[in-house]
Amino acid sequence: MCGIVSYIGYRPAYDVLIKGLKRLEYRGYDSAGLALIDNQGKLNIYKAKGRVSDLENTIKNQDCIGTVGIAHTRWATHGEPSVKNAHPHCSQSGHLTLIHNGIIENYTSIKQHLLEKGFTFKSDTDTEVLVQLIEYKMLTYDLDLVEGTKSALKHVIGAYAIVVLDDRNPSQLVAARKSSPLVIGIGEGQEEYFLASDVTPIVEYTDQVIYLDDERIAVIERGKDLYISDLENHRQIPDIQRIDVELGQIEKGNYSHYMLKEITEQPRVIADCMRGRISPDRKHIILSAVIDYGYLLVKAKRIIIVACGTSWHAGLIGKQLIEEFCRIPVMVEYASEFRYSNPVVGPDDVVIAISQSGETADTLAAVELAKEKGAFIFGICNAVGSSIPRATNTGCYIHVGPEIGVASTKAFTGQVTVLTMFALALGEKLGALDQAKYEEVIAELVTIPEKMKQTIERNEVVKKLSYVFTYARNFIYLGRGYAYPVALEGALKLKEISYIHAEGYPAAEMKHGPIALIDKEMPVVCIATSNGQYEKVISNIQEIKARDGRVIAIVSDSDTQIRKIADDVIDIPSTIECLDPLLTVIPLQILSYYVAVLKGLDVDMPRNLAKSVTVE
Ligand code: M6R
Q: Does the pLDDT of residue 537 top 90, yes or no?
């Protein structure tokens, strides 16, 4: 939540910052702002409520000169979205300017203290408190910006990625992080530096980056080596890494929305996700994390999956895969509930943390807690170098490329693909899975990208249906077994981008209450492939039809029965039951996409949401 970007170098900073903010806008879009120091050393601050484009409009007739600047796009936590609360925030003297991603939990007590010292505040934000605290430390103890920032941060409880600029020393930026991400890009000859919440604003200029470690502060000066240390002045040698993201991956290209691009990319990125992880003879899964740590994983008495949102839905599928192939009991926990539930977890447990962004605050906190209690932590993430993979013992990246649309699509299928390979690899190691089954699933898995392609090619059917249902007020999604988490995921997709109330249920649970909702106004999406409890799903559909519900069924090509009773059918290629979710989810993604488009909604930036939830 919130995106920050900063630049110091020789280019016009405004261009770098505005472009960077656009790339980070998926992280929050309630307001945007930037601060530049012009060639005369004057600090200029520009802010607007709303999107980055609103900021551009606000400042379009101004010069915006300068080669150093900081910028921010906000997802509001403390204080409503408004110009007053937009970052950057200034200290009382007006010399210090700061941008912040995260939450200062103890800001009320710090603010009270500063009020007593005569400070006044212009915004309702926690961030303004921090910049004032830095100034207070500098003034009271005669400290420079670096020491003042360190001193202030020692009092802060909460999460932050910050960049601070002092207009009395415009050749320096001071940055720090705790539990919120911050990447530093290093330009040629160290003549320029870039800072951002992720690599997307940086990739165009350099491929050399440092993922700032937690609880570190960085002093960045044009033409000089970076100075990185902890708050106690222990210097750290920077670990420079190469970014593996290309510009094309983060641009929308000819697609109208990132979400559509990402849905359409699934056949290719799922092939990428499997690349090198299935032996050429298609008889083995080669996951290096399972090879290296197999001796530990096989000893697990229990696996606990922690995740949020879509990643949690993938975790529910992971549970079924692991229990089926490994015969190890698996619990799937919302990370936010897990961390506060005094969980029974210890050295006999393996905890799998699933996260697209690798930055979700609750999932990261769940990982830290489980680690403290002695569990072995395995991460399944997408964003390379992000906080969760760095906090785990080992793991697998899903390698589906940057996901920018707020509604997660290709990350879900990537997570399910990795979970499938994980369950197969561990099941084989444990001897819990017979060789024929192991080889059958692998052989089928390699056909999935092509079947995904066929599924996407049929999107006209789904598009037509979306016209019919654009103005529905409620939806129910049903599935059994492997299809139940897909029902939850389909409902979440519709809710978050179409703002239509939708519920996912295990199909058999209908008769325990939700069936009372069924009438001719209620569209019911049934995930009803020919696998699993097919006959039982047919009975569930009959129950809905008997009450006049309108059934939209996702069926296998081979289906003969459901197409006779459902009102509408969406065909998908047949596969084996455990791989069905990789195909059945696609029409649900497409349905929610077109419903949102027809309603004229902003698919990639749905209201109230942000891509990466770095606050509790
Ligand atoms: O980055 P993560 O996978 O940890 O994110 C978890 C959820 O915030 C995320 O899946 C969210 O539910 C998406 N908006 C769903 O489309």
A: no
578 is catalytic: no
Is 80 exceeded by the pLDDT of residue 255? yes
Query: For the segment 513-525, what is each residue's pLDDT rounded down to a tens digit?
Result: 888 888 888 999 9
Ligand 1 centroid to Cα of residue 141, in Å, is: 43
326 is catalytic: no
For residue 416, how far is its CA from the centre of ligand 1 (angstroms)? 14
Ligand 1 centroid to Cα of residue 540, in Å, is 30
Q: b vs e for 428-449, b when ≥16 Cβ sit within 10 Å of the residue's Cβ? A: bbbebbeeebbbebbebbeebb
Q: Measuring from atom 9 of ligand 1, which residue has the nearest CA?
A: 309
Q: Which of 2, 90, 381, 578 is catalytic?
A: 2
Structural domains of the chain sorted by starting position, each given as residue range(s) with its CATH number in brackets: 3-249 (3.60.20.10), 252-452 (3.40.50.10490), 458-603 (3.40.50.10490)
Closest Cα to residue 35, out of 76, 94, 114? 94
CA angle (28, 34, 39) in 5-degree steps? 160
CA quadruple 461, 464, 466, 467: dihedral, nearest 10: -170
Task: Write out residues with Cβ below 6 Å of ligand 1.
Answer: 308-311, 355-357, 360, 363, 406-408, 492, 496, 612-613
